[in-house]
Methyltransferase
Amino acid sequence: MNDSLNLDKFKQQIADMYSQRSSNYDDEGDFHPSIAHHLVEYANIQTGQKVLDIATGTGLVAIEAAQLVGSNGRVVGVDISTGMLDMANTKAKAAGLDNIEFKLADAETLDFPDSSFDTILCSSALILLTDIPKALRRWHQFLKVGGLIGFHGFAETAFITGVILGKVARKHGIGLNFHGITGTQEKCSTLLTDAGFTDIEIKSAQYGSYISLERAKNIWAISLKHPLSSSLRQLSPEQLIQAKADYDAELEALVTDKGIWDDVTIFFTFGRKGTNNKSLL
Ligand SMILES: C[S@@+](CC[C@H](N)C(=O)[O-])C[C@H]1O[C@@H](n2cnc3c(N)ncnc32)[C@H](O)[C@@H]1O
């Protein structure tokens, strides 16, 4: 599907999964649009700026940014999913935007000239990257001095079904920690400082809600198919039956009269490329 990118198996699975989801992605609810909007809002994008939207998907961030930078600015959105990029292109055309460009590219092997962008944003995608610290160091080079980077991380408590899945996986000797790397504000801050960014600012937001036990139990099947859970699929059929029973039991213990609290704490994290920054690559 993405022949020109030569993706590894994990990334090809991710690209295919999002291409399959692409035509419905914008109708899945307000979750991704709301996060993307807040990321753009907090970034305080100005007219004339050059903006890079990493893992742009259907262009939620890129299109809003293109409207803000105006005709003197420019926005580039990159993604590995052709389906998502097709949607992004269609939307940008419909919005009459000619200051936006979408490219099929892997966020981890991007190759822009140094100091190309005023703002680099990455919404709802960081966790899908293979080597986040290395990617951040690479993106640092693409920013102009004084430029802003913004992403959001999920807290280690976020998505109760993922938290329980991780707990059950560990019981079966499998390490699954979906949001370990961005799990706290300190971890988000460290990610940016280690990549050479300064002036770190973090805004925490709660996107959680109560979900039914039935829905939480059904998420098992979806989670098991996700490329990030591939290690779980190595369990034997008997182990998987036991793991599912453990998962259900853990969820049942969390039920309240409102359902199960599904925490979705998000850390909107921003940093700047300071002066005298040497490349950390
Ligand atoms: C949950 S969607 C988020 C899309 C968009 N940023 C948003 O806020 O709605 C995740 C996106 O990340 C893309 N993605 C995952 N890994 C990537 C990579 N290594 N390079 C570029 N895009 C990637 C997927 O193809 C998908 O479009």
Observations:
- The first strand starts at residue 50 and ends at 54.
